Amino acid sequence: MNFQRIAIPLLVIGLLAFAWRQYSWPGVAAVGGGLLMWLLLHVTRLMTVMQRAAKRPIGHVTSAVMLNAKLKPGMTLMHVIAMTRALGERLTPEGEQPEQYRWTDGSDSSVMAHFHGGRLVSWDLARPAPEAETAP
């Protein structure tokens, strides 16, 4: 089970309880306002990332090699979408784990990313075979 699904609500309740105990209603209002601001910042970032991704073709990235160099295990899918500024081409059926997405650049190089629980587990760079040069 995901630890954050339990820890974050408990932390919020703990902060609100602490604010009530120390400062009564003004404390609850201050902590509630801070939590609301934090939530609005995250929603704004999510909307900005999705608006940028909506303006580009699905599965397209400027350079697959540079994307391959920037990826790190544990990155969230949203972070990868923010880096590529495009939604990945989904390769697995919805709801199946691990999820696989592919981003391709103009030279047909592609990065296939594997996500488990929304976190990057592994990725593969596929480059096209070099063309055979003709002899002079």
Task: Provide the descriptors you would attach to this structure in a database record.
136 residues, alpha+beta, Beta-lactamase Inhibitory Protein, Chain:B, domain 1, 2 domains, 4-stranded antiparallel β-sheet, 17% strand, elongated
Short description:
Helix content is 49%, strand content 17%. It has 136 residues and is of the alpha+beta class.
Strand arrangement within the widest β-sheet reads 1-2-3-4
Structural class: alpha+beta
Count of DSSP H/I helices:
3
> How many β-strand runs?
4
The largest pleated sheet is described as: 4 strands, antiparallel
What's the CATH architecture of the largest domain?
A: 2-Layer Sandwich
Q: Whole-Å distance between the termini?
A: 63 Å
Tell me the CATH topology of the largest domain: Beta-lactamase Inhibitory Protein, Chain:B, domain 1
Number of domains: 2
Name of the top-level CATH class of the largest domain: Alpha Beta
| Shape label | elongated
Mean pLDDT metric: 92
Low-confidence residue ranges: none
β-sheet strand percentage: 15-25%
Oligomer: single chain
- The radius of gyration over CA amounts to 21 Å
